[in-house]
Amino acid sequence: MAEDEGLQTRGEPISEAGLSPEQLLQGQQRILEMVAGGENLQRSLQAIAAFSEACLPEMLASILYYDPYEQRLRRGGYGQLPDSFQEAVDGLVPGPKAGSCGTCAFRAQRVVSEDVFTDPLWDDFHDFCHSYGIRSAWSSPLISPNDQSLLGVFGMYYPDRRLPSPADLELVDHMTHLATLAAERHRRDEERRRQAMEDALTGLGNRHLLQTQAGELVAQAQHAQQPLSLLFLDLDHFKLFNDNFGHLLGDKLLLQFSRQLKAFLPTAQLLARFGGDEFVAIIPEPSDQVSERLHDLLRRLDQDTLLIDHVRARLSFSSGVVDLAAVNWNFGQAILQADTAARQAKESGRHRIQMVDAAQLTAVQRRLQVGKDLEDALRYGLVHPHAQPIVDLRTGAPLGMELLFRTRTGVLNGIDPQLCIHVAEEAGLIDAIGFEMLRGACRLLKDPAIASSDLLINVNLSVHQLLREDFPDEVAQLLAAEAVDARRICLEITESRWLDPDGPSRVLLNRLVGQGFVLALDDFGTGYASLLLLRSVPFRHVKVDKTFVQELEDSDEALALCRAMLEMAKAYGIQVTAEGVETPQQRRILEELGYIRCQGYLFARPTPLEDTPALLLDMQRQARRSALD
Ligand code: C2E
Ligand code: CA
Ligand code: CA
Q1: Most CB contacts within 10 A, which of 48, 396, 470, 570?
Q2: Which protein residues have a CB closer than 5 Å to ligand 2 (ion)?
Q3: 234: domain range?
Q4: pTM of the predicted model as reported, rounded to 2 decimal places
């Protein structure tokens, strides 16, 4: 072999190529336009290789791109050489004895092998040369003019022994220049892409990478029915470390940990720092296997403290793992679950891995489905309120009724209304549902039989609705449009921690009272601040929760509580309704305690609004008849 300096040259002019200077210029121009126009690397290199071959008819060209992250040569462009040639050299690792291209990349210098069968650089590649009919090979490095880094290698092959002439070398210079431009541009684009997707501190992926690539991975695995797990990992006590030792050391700790994490998750398809001290990985393994890996890592961290500069740190983490094969989730849903599981792990004492199990998954999925069904029900006008009478338990005469949420959709049949309401609250649909229910109340109040009575219509209000300040104005508008008197409507509000006696909801409730609405405190006895609430908001009714009523027969405590609640309400001048009365015994006990207002299956089940007036008339008639008896 001979190198640049010791070249013997044959001195033929460039015209040997069979291309005129104009053709040469035109060819170069065309390629420059390709590169400047952002043509992809392989196509640009392909064009350069083909053009080189046109200039030097016996020569075969192959241009390889150097990937600095993998430190390998990658297929670039070639002319007449068969596909298999590039496939064979793709991934070639530069080395001191790796043919002329591999060696050229290794030395970053031109390498000329006049005869590959005698040149020791080619010792390991004789078969290869035979099969492609190669006798001599010249390789020139593509070097970035900016930072002198290696961009690739331009390889030229001949079927006979040969050394380059000055004209050959001049042409090679032209071609490597073009190839360098193309490779340089590609390198810059890659860098930019990489930086946009990479976490600068740890070199792992960043949130952007997750967002752009995770969805695809999830969809692919689900389609191929392959195992896939998502893990969310949160370091324990990282903030403490940061506060104590400063951000610089904090960063070093994150970097060290990220390396360990990477080592323990060798199969991860995607590993990213999600933010601060949170990491996310997508791993093509079942979740129990991933959890096993994480336990290994936890054990390792228990045994070996990390040395960060002069500080020894014992590290641990809390993690949530979701089995993505178990359900048809998109990435957004999955990461929410994994995050929640990691938080649960943290709350239950840290240093642990929380699996999102199949039952949880089904429950969440069901909620998602219910959310969609509710949205449809609203969109297609399928909300179908029912009403359940509230009666005088001594006579059975109706005193009012409570509207309860139901739909006409088959898909929501059999789904617990309480679940529907919870989901609606989560999904931001509760306002719309609340309005449908109020509209139902208006409809009922316009029925002649009900309009002429003094029956109150109870409508349940979600505390979420009370968090919106414009709620009173909106209801006022609705009632005005429907010409309905607010005094005929009782709003039932469940005690909850949102219902802060000192909070904005109290102001809002008082505004509603000012508008004429009657207020009832629902599920009385189960909540948080009964007494305070009763003092600070003018409730006219309380509804004793059905759990107390249902224990009346067996539990002295329930009996005592029912008595106490009645006494207390009386003291405040508030009317009491007992809910969930199912048996004559319960009715008898309540009557003995002094209860009057009752609601329950014993008297009537919830019925569709359109049947309610008839039901109420019927109950009135029966009550009158039994009073006469
Ligand atoms: P709630 O306000 O306490 O409503 C009373 C619940 O007791 C209703 O359940 C009713 O069907 C049920 N019930 C009545 N009598 C009996 C009985 O004798 N035995 C038993 N076991 N149950 C009886 P439902 O309709 O399933 O509603 C459940 C909860 O969902 C309601 O509890 C309320 O918190 C909520 N909800 C229902 N409709 C609405 C609505 O329109 N808006 C809001 N925000 N919440 C609603
Ligand atoms: Ca209620
Ligand atoms: Ca209730």
Answers
A1: 48
A2: 460, 492, 522
A3: 207-356
A4: 0.58
